[in-house]
């Protein structure tokens, strides 16, 4: 290849870059795959997506879920998604922005959903994750607790769990913790 | 003078055997002779990405292989824990930029070589910086960084009208990687051998523990460390991001992990393990780095000179038990969005985005409907979700030439549903677009991620 490169080097010395246009921003493989995921989104009526940074930043977005069934009926819960440049090799980072009384979501917004961590596979996509999150609200599960107190109440006293959820969503204290209104 | 000459010839004695003599295992365009040797010294400009365990070895190996114009880029500073294997660094160098010290040390020891250090992130450099090198050699430890360099290198690649890669636009990469006693060396000739993206599935997924295990039922030392790192940190430092390169942060995670381990009677939490788990560090072995770097330096010389056929195309080395090496010839992903040719389309400057989308439906290779379009960092049109559709709808009636900043040619990425009836499926592809009647047009275009 050296011959080829030598010719190129000589040409370069003769004519320094004539193209004055600013370079087109490169797209990471993650951005291209995400573009596909987003354009193929097929969300249930209870879920919506928004792009706080506008149409040219798809890598950071928010998903809002309004459960139409179960303990969380009537609540509005927003999740932030951060997508890496090597998506889907790496799973999106998802956090719950709304403070929620939930056995599988802690008070800092960490979410225990298997496909976000240990069971993530590159064939999964944003749609799958949103359905997974939605599922957490229709079927909260006390066996994978992140909020241990909430999980224990759900297991031992579902009626009380239900009233705790109501109180939290209406804006108020459950135990020592204050929840802002999200109905 | 006579002494200096003799010294010079003895230094290149072994190299001369490769470069000055013909052979029957040589590459296709090999022309042995002193001119070749001199040209390599004068014209071959090589970039080494990373000045760590592999980078130190690579710089030394390349300098001693007759390359005289080297540059090295690395954003890190030297740490005490580097000194056991990053042999160009001394105790008094701790805290200094790796690239600068490495360049200086090799120049002190190998006469005639010039090494330009760049103490910055790889993303800080413009594409023109990377385009100036003949070959890019990678001594990296992250998938993200490899992926980025791959995107840059593939963005230079152009295809001719028959869909064949144009050799003069090809930016070869030689990639080394090690993990403990294991390593790989590979040759990436974009357009010919698989690029990094074609075979990204080769990398095993990162180990991620379920958060609820960390929170409720920790069983191992890494569980305790990840609890402190992922859950406890946020609880205590609300809003403050954890910085793995900040020793105080790391110390905090370590002490929390210890408390956690004590609570559950789990042994094995150490500071080193904490760093390892949090930063995904695998212990590096000096000899593995030396072996892999030597393979990479040799491949670099082979690509530059043609003195032998290159590795085809992926060497794995395993020294865990005994020694095993193997070369596997991986194949390209023909539809790779990074290095693949995509589809070429010639358009009128007056064609609107909508007209392009309609043409994709008629394009026999695609028959694509439900099209969404991206150009560089800009989202030109999205079918879904409704919010983005509304934000991009006004682009449909604008001419594509205008949307592409009046460049005579460029790259679009389109996604939609494509294929013949009964076999239609979701599809993403690259479009190489050229506008008729605009000066400077050939029927070729960049292949890259542009």
Automatic annotation (TrEMBL), chain A:
Pathway as given in its UniProt record: Protein modification; protein neddylation
Superkingdom in the source lineage: Eukaryota
Statement: the UniProt record of this protein carries the keyword Membrane: no
The UniProt record lists the keyword ATP-binding: yes
GO cellular component: cytosol; nucleus
Record's keyword terms, sorted: ATP-binding, Nucleotide-binding, Transferase, Ubl conjugation pathway
GO annotation, biological process: protein neddylation
Domain UBC core: start-end pairs: 29-174
Coiled coil regions, renumbered to chain: none
UniProt-recorded Gene Ontology molecular function terms: ATP binding; NEDD8 transferase activity
InterPro entries assigned: Ub_conjugating_enzyme (IPR050113), UBC (IPR000608), UBQ-conjugating_AS (IPR023313), UBQ-conjugating_enzyme/RWD (IPR016135)
Classification via SMART domains: UBCc (SM00212)
Catalytic residue positions: 112 (glycyl thioester intermediate)
Pfam families, A to Z: UQ_con
Function, as annotated: Accepts the ubiquitin-like protein NEDD8/RUB1 from the ECR1-AXR1 E1 complex and catalyzes its covalent attachment to other proteins.
Family assignment from sequence similarity: Belongs to the ubiquitin-conjugating enzyme family.
Full protein name: UBC core domain-containing protein
Origin species: Lactuca sativa
TrEMBL record, chain B:
UniProt pathway annotation: Protein modification; protein neddylation
Reactions catalysed: ATP + [NEDD8 protein] + [E1 NEDD8-activating enzyme]-L-cysteine = AMP + diphosphate + [E1 NEDD8-activating enzyme]-S-[NEDD8 protein]-yl-L-cysteine
Keyword Ligase: yes
Gene Ontology cellular component list: cytoplasm; nucleus
InterPro entries named in the record: E2-binding, ThiF/MoeB/HesA, ThiF_NAD_FAD-bd, Ub_act_enz_dom_a_sf, Uba3_N, Ubiquitin-activating_enz, UBQ-activ_enz_E1_Cys_AS
Protein's job: Catalytic subunit of the dimeric E1 enzyme, which activates NEDD8.
Family as reported in the entry's similarity comment: Belongs to the ubiquitin-activating E1 family. UBA3 subfamily.
Protein name: NEDD8-activating enzyme E1 catalytic subunit
């Amino acid at each position: 290849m050296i011959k080829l490169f030598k010719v190129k080097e000589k040409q370069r010395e003769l004519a320094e870059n004539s193209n004055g246009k600013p370079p087109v921003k490169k797209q990471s493989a993650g951005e291209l795959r995400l573009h596909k995921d987003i354009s193929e989104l097929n969300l249930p009526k209870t879920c919506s997506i928004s792009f706080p940074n506008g149409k040219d930043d798809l890598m950071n977005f928010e998903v809002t879920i309004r459960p139409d069934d179960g303990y969380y009926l009537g609540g509005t819960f927003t999740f932030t998604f951060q997508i890496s440049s090597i998506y889907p090799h790496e799973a999106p980072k998802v956090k719950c922005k709304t403070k929620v009384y939930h056995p599988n979501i802690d008070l800092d917004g960490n979410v225990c959903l298997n496909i976000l961590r240990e069971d993530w596979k590159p064939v999964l996509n944003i749609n799958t994750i949103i359905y997974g999150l939605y599922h957490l609200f229709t079927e909260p599960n006390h066996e994978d607790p992140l909020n241990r107190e909430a999980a224990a109440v759900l297991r031992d006293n579902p009626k009380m769990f239900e009233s705790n959820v109501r109180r939290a969503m209406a804006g108020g204290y459950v135990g020592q913790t204050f929840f802002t209104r999200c109905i | 003078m006579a002494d200096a000459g003799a010294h010079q010839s003895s230094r290149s004695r072994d190299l001369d055997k490769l470069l000055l003599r013909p052979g029957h295992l040589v590459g296709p365009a090999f022309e042995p002779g002193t001119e070749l040797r001199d040209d390599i010294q004068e014209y071959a400009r090589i970039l080494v990405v990373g000045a760590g365990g592999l980078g130190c070895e690579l710089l030394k190996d390349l300098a001693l292989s007759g390359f005289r114009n080297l540059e090295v880029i690395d954003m890190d500073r030297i740490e005490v824990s580097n000194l056991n294997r990053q042999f160009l660094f001394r105790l008094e160098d701790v805290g200094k930029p790796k690239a600068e010290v490495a360049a200086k040390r090799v120049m002190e020891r190998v006469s005639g070589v010039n090494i330009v250090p760049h103490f910055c992130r790889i993303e800080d450099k413009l594409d023109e910086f990377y385009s100036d090198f003949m070959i890019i050699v990678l001594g990296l430890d992250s998938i993200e960084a490899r992926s980025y360099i791959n995107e840059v290198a593939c963005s230079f690649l152009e295809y001719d009208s028959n869909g064949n890669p144009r050799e003069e636009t090809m930016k070869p990469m030689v990639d080394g990687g090690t993990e403990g006693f294991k390593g790989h060396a590979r040759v990436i000739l974009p357009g010919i051998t698989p690029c990094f993206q074609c075979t990204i599935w080769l990398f095993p997924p990162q180990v991620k523990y379920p958060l609820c295990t960390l929170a409720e039922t920790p069983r191992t030392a890494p569980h305790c460390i990840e609890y402190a790192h992922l859950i406890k940190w946020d609880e205590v430092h609300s809003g403050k991001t954890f910085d793995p390169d900040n020793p105080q942060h790391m110390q905090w995670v370590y002490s929390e992990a210890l408390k956690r381990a004590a609570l559950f009677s789990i042994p094995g939490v150490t500071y080193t393990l904490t760093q390892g788990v949090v930063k995904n560090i695998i212990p590096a072995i000096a000899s593995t780095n030396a072996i892999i770097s030597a393979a990479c330096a040799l491949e670099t010389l082979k690509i530059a000179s043609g003195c032998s056929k290159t590795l085809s195309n992926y060497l794995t080395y395993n020294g865990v038990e005994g020694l095993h090496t193997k070369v596997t010839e991986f194949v390209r992903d023909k539809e790779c969005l990074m290095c693949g040719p995509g589809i070429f389309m010639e358009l009128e400057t007056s064609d609107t985005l909508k007209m392009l989308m309609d043409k994709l439906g008629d394009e026999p290779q695609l028959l694509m409907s439900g099209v969404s379009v991206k150009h560089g960092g800009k989202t030109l049109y999205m079918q879904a979700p409704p919010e983005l559709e509304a934000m991009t709808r006004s682009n449909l009636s604008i001419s594509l030439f205008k949307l592409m900043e009046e460049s005579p040619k460029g790259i679009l990425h389109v996604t939609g549903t494509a294929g013949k009836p009964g076999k239609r499926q979701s599809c993403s592809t690259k479009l190489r677009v050229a506008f008729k009647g605009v000066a400077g047009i050939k029927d070729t275009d960049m292949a890259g991620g542009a």
